[in-house]
Amino acid sequence: MREVVPHTSERQPVTEGPPFVIPADQAILSGRPKGAHLLEVCMAHLGAAPAHSVSPLDFSSVSFMDVSCADELLVKLLKRLGSGELANRFVYVQGLNTSLRETVEAVLELRELAVWSKNEEGQVVLLGVLKTPMREAAEVLSARKCLTSAELSEALDKNVNIVCNRLNALQRMGLVCRLRDGSVEGGGRQYYYVSIV
Fold first, then answer.
1. pLDDT score for 185
2. CA distance 26 to 100
3. CA-to-CA distance for 163 and 101, rounded, in angstroms?
4. Is the pLDDT of residue 1 over 50?
């Protein structure tokens, strides 16, 4: 195994960005135009957030959201973040009542996407579609907060190349943050992966 040349800076977790709170006068979210408007406001909010930050999308003032609005707001937001449009900015959802959670899960399953969610007790869960091996990697990283692919490989007792592929896919989905840690002797790069929740 090649030795790692340590990077000069210490590993830093992702910082908490300012929350995007759906206003109280928007308690009922219905239709694509409403979702499209909120998406643009949210994208501007996230664009102003610091790099390497995660912002909660706070739905605590919302009592109802239909599938069309959720598709326009949440699905398009996750796709735009996944495309790298707002590099190294991440989101999770919070404040979901039972009805909102069911709508969000239905839309995410339909679009084969996933997002982290926090409840009032601070418990973190993944909503949406994520294959078992990917979910396992995401949950271990969420529990440990920060790992290299080699460390996660050891924790999962899996080949490091398989683990790298899973981590890179999770990073593209906006579920983990990948940061440069240094170089390895003989060339190449060393990355570490940070939980966003």
1. 56
2. 14
3. 30
4. no
CATH class entry, domain 15-129: alpha beta
Reported as half-sphere exposure (CB side, CA atoms, 13 A), residue 44 has a value of 5
**Domain chopping of the chain, boundaries:** 15-129, 130-197
Amino acid at 93: V
- The CATH architecture that domain 130-197 belongs to is Orthogonal Bundle (1.10)
Query: What pLDDT band is residue 54 in, cutting at 50, 70 and 90?
Result: very high
Query: d(Cα 45, Cα 86) in Å, to the nearest integer?
Result: 11
CA distances in angstroms from 102 to 8, 107, 115, 135, 195, listed in the order given = 45, 9, 13, 19, 25
> Is residue 155 packed enough to be buried (19+ CB in 10 Å), middle (13-18) or exposed (0-12)?
middle
